[in-house]
Structures are given as C-alpha cells and as structure tokens.
Write a structure and sequence with these properties.
Elements: E1 6-11, H1 15-26, E2 32-38, H2 42-49, H3 61-67, E3 70-73, H4 77-89, E4 93-96, H5 106-116, E5 120-121, H6 130-136, E6 141-150, H7 159-163, E7 175-181, H8 182-188, H9 194-202, E8 210-215, E9 222-230, E10 233-241, E11 243-244, E12 247-251, H10 252-266
Parallel strand pairs: 1-2, 1-3, 3-4, 4-5, 6-8
Antiparallel strand pairs: 6-9, 7-8, 9-10, 11-12
Helix pairs in contact: 1-10, 4-5, 8-9
Nicotinamide-adenine-dinucleotide (NAD) binds next to helix 1, helix 4, helix 9 and strand 12.
Length: 273
C-alpha cells in the first residue's frame, strides 16, 4: 500500500534546520515533504524556503503546526518545551534537538503523548552509546559520568562564564569549568550540553547523571566521554566530533543523528536498539 508523504515542519532554520531541510528534500523526497519552515528571524525561513518552496515559509509557529504531521525543533533551549508542548497538544509527532530545554519537562510531554497520540523523538545527537545505555537501563545502572571537552570559544556568551568571570582567552591548558549534576549543567549551559540531557533521559535521570565540562585550548573537535557502570558491565564511549561548518557550538554528528532518526521514522526496517 502506498502511504501519503509525511509532512515535515522545521522550527529553527539555523545550522541544523538548514541541513535537515536539504536532507528531507533530497534523501527522503519519496516519503516526506518539507511542508513548513519557521524561524524567529522570518528572513531565515524565507531564505531557506527559496523561490521553489516559498509557500512553506511560515510567519508564526501556529501557522507551521497547522500544516505538518512531524515538527522538527532545531531552535533554542528556552523555546523547545513550548514548541514541543504546543505540537504534542495537537497530536503531532515532534523531534527535539534542543534537548536541554525539554529534559525537566519530559514527564509532561510523555503524558501528552499518551493522551493525544503524538510521539516524541530525541535523537542521540552529538553522542554515541545511547543504544547500550538504554539496554543497560533495562537492568540496573549504578553510575553515569559525562566529560565534555570543547575549545574555550565554544563557551563564548554563556551566562555562567560571564557570571563567574571566567576569562576564556586566558585559558592555556585543560580547565574544568563545571562539575555537577546533569540538571545543573543543562540549566547553566543550555546551548552547549544537550548531550547531558539526552544521556540522562536514556539512563538514570538529570540528578544522578554526573557532568564535567572542560575548556580545552588547541582542541579542534568537541569531545564527549561517557563512563557507565551497570549490572550488565561497564561502558566507555569516546566521541571526537568535527564541528558543523556554520556553527562551532554544534557537532556535525548531531545533524547526521537527526537524519538517522528521520530514517528510522520513515523506513520500515530499523537496526539497533
Ligand atoms: N541534541 C544535540 O546533541 C544537539 C547538538 C547540537 C545542537 N543542538 C541544539 O540544536 C539547536 C539548533 O542548533 P543550531 O546549531 O542549528 O543553532 P543555530 O543557532 O545555527 O540556529 C538556531 C535557529 O533557531 C532560530 N530561533 C531561535 N529561537 C527561536 C524560536 N523561539 N522560534 C523559532 N526559531 C528560533 C534562530 O534564529 C536560528 O536561526 C540548539 O538549541 C542547539 O543547542 C543539539
């Protein structure tokens, strides 16, 4: 039976949104269509829609929600929950990239999904190993530690850095700038540490997951190391991610992970946990 194309809308037309729009129009054109685009800076949505798909550019979120089956949120942590909540209230499926913005509201979104019938997708993003952690969590996980290392400039403009008067340009060796729970990390570094939120949702939660953030001069990549101790054994994962050419805060792997999740949604066969 031939299914109708999945109508996809993208909220946030920056580095990730732009890459995903291209993937939908090329790799998935037989199963999906880019039905709507919205950015707080409407110039960006019009630019990404281009002349060939001008009617896709939406002037506000509600306009986009009315046109789509699946909403991709690739905007900002402080608006991610509102986008997901409004979409799920209308029984739409939602794929969230700004995971730090929804993590503490996860229960509310899961309840909405159950009540209205929409689904919530959280790609692994910039980390690997979520498959093993989900499996280990079906038994008992005792400890999860994430160490994230990024070049100092990746933390430019972060309020925590400004408040604590950390001089990023003075950092000349690996320096731990934060150590604490994933809950605090997602509050203090909302645009930098989505991976901590994803890891927490897949494992033992925001309070119990421990996070260390290191500013590392000379580093050209974003590094994430995950250590897990569980009743099924230990897991150690290390990702050295190349950064997205349009946004040094974003790993290219995060974009590909969203594309892989779209594939999982659209294809009948799915490999991996
Ligand atoms: N899950 C992960 O592992 C992972 C990895 C990297 C980035 N991210 C997150 O994904 C999001 C997008 O990343 P990016 O690199 O594309 O960022 P970006 O800054 O390149 O683009 C974000 C876009 O969203 C728009 N925007 C901001 N607030 C908005 C709102 N309320 N409504 C609509 N549009 C809005 C901005 O104008 C901008 O065009 C960020 O929140 C980032 O932290 C997640």
């Amino acid at each position: 039976m031939k299914r109708s194309k999945l109508k996809i809308g993208i909220v946030g037309c920056g580095a990730i949104g732009t890459s995903l729009a291209k993937a939908i129009s090329t790799d998935f054109s037989d199963k999906a269509e880019l039905a709507s685009l919205y950015d707080a800076d409407v110039e960006k949505s019009f630019h990404l829609a281009g002349n060939s798909n001008r009617k896709a550019a939406a002037l506000n979120l509600e306009d986009l929600l009315n046109k789509v089956d699946l909403v991709i949120e690739s905007a900002k942590a402080d608006s991610a929950f509102e986008v997901a909540r409004k979409a799920m209230y209308l029984a739409k499926d939602v794929l969230v990239m700004s995971v730090g913005g929804i993590a503490e509201h996860y229960g509310e979104l899961a309840a909405l999904a159950k009540e209205k019938g929409g689904r919530l997708f959280v790609p692994s993003g910039a980390i690997c190993g979520i498959d093993g952690i989900k499996a280990a969590n079906c038994g008992k996980i005792n400890k999860v530690v994430l160490t994230t290392k990024k070049p100092p400039k990746a933390f430019l403009g972060v309020r925590y850095i400004l408040k604590n008067k950390i001089r990023l340009d003075n950092i000349d060796k690996d320096t731990v700038i934060f150590e604490g729970s994933a809950y605090s990390a997602t509050k203090l570094f909302p645009q930098n540490i989505n991976v901590a939120a994803t890891l927490s949702l897949a494992g033992i939660g925001l309070e119990k997951t421990l996070v260390r953030i290191v500013a590392s001069p000379g580093l050209k990549q974003n590094m994430h190391e995950i250590e897990v101790e569980s009743d099924s054994g230990t897991i150690f994962v290390r990702c050295a991610n190349l950064i997205h050419p349009s946004n040094p805060k974003t790993s290219y792997l995060a974009v590909l992970s969203a594309i892989a999740t779209l594939k999982k949604i659209l294809e009948p066969v799915s490999i991996g946990t």
